[in-house]
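Practice problem 4.
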């Protein structure tokens, strides 16, 4: 499968689902439901013991999905995730060691930033698409509006506290390329294997104005 830049990944849909997978049996049907709704880029967070196995299973079973890994905290996480088949990485903050490991693994990265200084540091490393995290806790839409002019040339994927109601305001900003969110795969629906609801929420997310 051909490599994609992080910008190409982010432009696949207005929303990148942020997924916490506890049950391996639900990994593949969850991915299938999201892809059926039009969301191909999936962020599987390293917040559970089965996350890497979930990545492997989805990569093998759902070729239409562009499977990424979230919550990358160190170089070891990057190496393990690349071996599992992850095609892009997401981290909560800006870490030189994580970025170096991702570069070595040829894994496109979406590092988290919360300040202009961090955004400038990322830009100095050649990165132009960044995760704004945690978005709502750091001023949300107002902050990104304020950043648009002084940080011209940078695009953001705000994540953290965003839902279907607040997402359109972010997506309407010129410096926002997509948003990350977990509302597309609500825990109750996943536990009940209610994949029709997940697909419906994914379809609604795809229809959000960009």
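Answer key:
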């Amino acid at each position: 499968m051909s490599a994609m830049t992080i910008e190409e990944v982010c432009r696949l849909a207005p929303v990148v689902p942020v997924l916490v997978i506890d049950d391996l049996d639900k990994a593949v049907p969850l991915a299938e439901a999201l892809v059926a709704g039009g969301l191909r880029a999936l962020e599987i967070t390293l917040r559970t013991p089965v996350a890497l196995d979930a990545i492997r299973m989805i990569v093998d079973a759902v070729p239409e999905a562009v499977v990424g890994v979230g919550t990358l905290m160190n170089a070891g996480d990057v190496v393990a995730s690349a071996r599992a088949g992850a095609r892009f990485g997401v981290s909560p903050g800006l870490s030189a060691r994580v970025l170096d490991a991702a570069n070595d693994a040829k894994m496109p990265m979406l590092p988290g930033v919360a300040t202009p200084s961090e955004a400038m540091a990322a830009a100095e490393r050649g990165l132009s698409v960044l995760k704004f995290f945690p978005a709502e806790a750091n001023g949300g839409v107002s902050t990104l509006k304020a950043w648009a002019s002084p940080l011209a040339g940078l695009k953001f994927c705000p994540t953290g506290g965003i839902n279907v109601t607040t997402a359109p305001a972010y997506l309407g900003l010129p410096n926002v390329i997509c948003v990350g969110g977990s509302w597309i795969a609500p825990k109750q629906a996943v536990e009940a294997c209610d994949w029709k609801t997940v697909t419906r929420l994914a379809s609604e997310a795809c229809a959000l104005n960009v």
